[in-house]
């Protein structure tokens, strides 16, 4: 199954192979899992953040990460923006209207009207 991100990454200027994309997906999943099991409990217990504040941070972080992902011209930029986005939110809550969104954890394309 191809996602929008794979179709973006396999074209110029990045020209990624399926192997490189697989490494990227594995890296992304590892970073996301690490963030979920360390940062979210830390934000809730140590900094006493409410769920709504964590969700707002998730939306902002996801938006910034996806923007930089779309503007990436080098492979290190793609890995960096996904690392940044995954380390600053609870999960990939995507509620931005009128754009095609990549549901990373489900690997399906969803169009939000």
Q: State the total count of DSSP E strands.
A: 2
What composes the largest sheet? 2 strands, antiparallel
Strand order of the largest sheet: 1-2
User: What percentage of amino acids are in beta strands?
Assistant: 5-15%
Tell me the radius of gyration.
14 Å
Give an overview in words.
The protein is 59% helix and 7% strand. By secondary structure, the protein is mainly alpha-helical. It has a two-stranded antiparallel sheet. A hairpin with a 4-residue loop joins β1 and β2. The longest helix has 28 residues. It is elongated and about 45 Å long. It starts with a helix and ends with a strand. The C terminus is likely disordered.
Key structural traits:
single chain; 113 residues; two-stranded antiparallel ribbon
In short:
The protein is built from 4 helices and 2 strands, in the order ααααββ. The protein is mainly alpha-helical and 113 residues long. The protein is elongated.
Give the topology, please.
Layout: H1 4-9, H2 18-45, H3 51-71, H4 75-86, E1 100-103, E2 108-111
């Amino acid at each position: 199954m191809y996602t929008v991100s794979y179709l973006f990454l396999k074209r110029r200027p990045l020209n990624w192979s399926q192997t490189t994309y697989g490494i990227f997906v594995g890296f992304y999943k590892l970073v996301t899992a690490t963030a979920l099991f360390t940062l979210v409990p830390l934000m809730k217990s140590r900094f006493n953040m409410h769920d709504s504040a964590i969700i707002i941070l998730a939306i902002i972080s996801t938006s910034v990460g996806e923007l930089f992902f779309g503007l990436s011209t080098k492979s290190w930029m793609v890995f960096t923006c996904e690392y940044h986005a995954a380390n600053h939110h609870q999960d990939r809550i995507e509620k931005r209207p009128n754009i095609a969104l990549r549901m990373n954890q489900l690997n399906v394309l969803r169009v939000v009207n």
